[in-house]
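thought: fold this chain, then report.
action: predict
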Amino acid sequence: MNSNEHTPVDRRREAQERLKTIDGARDARRRLAVRCRCSHRVADVYEVDGDLVYVARVSGRGHGRRDRVDAAHRGSEHGRACIDLLVAGGPDDGDDWLPASCECGPHQLSRTTLRDAVASGDRALVVGGRPR
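observation:
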């Protein structure tokens, strides 16, 4: 699939449909786990029918060490899901960056970097700096 063939809305819709086909078997299809330096889950990349599907949660704020949040962190899925296909796109076409977040705060992940990590056989990618 070429990014010029579909609009971003079409691409995201197709990614959501593909992701539904692997529910229950995501662990077997995970090609890349993206974590922050504090080991929080930032995003995952799955292979579905030969394409890479990006999945991340995006929330409005982090839960840094100075935050006093009364909600438990265990198993809660706060924020909205960002699901997209990792098709060709790059810094030149302005569609290279994907949003993500973890307890440390927001992240911006590069499609190119994620695709390159999967192509080189990496199973994990660490992103971001140390939270303040």
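thought: worth noting. DSSP finds three helices and seven strands in the chain.
final: tokens above.
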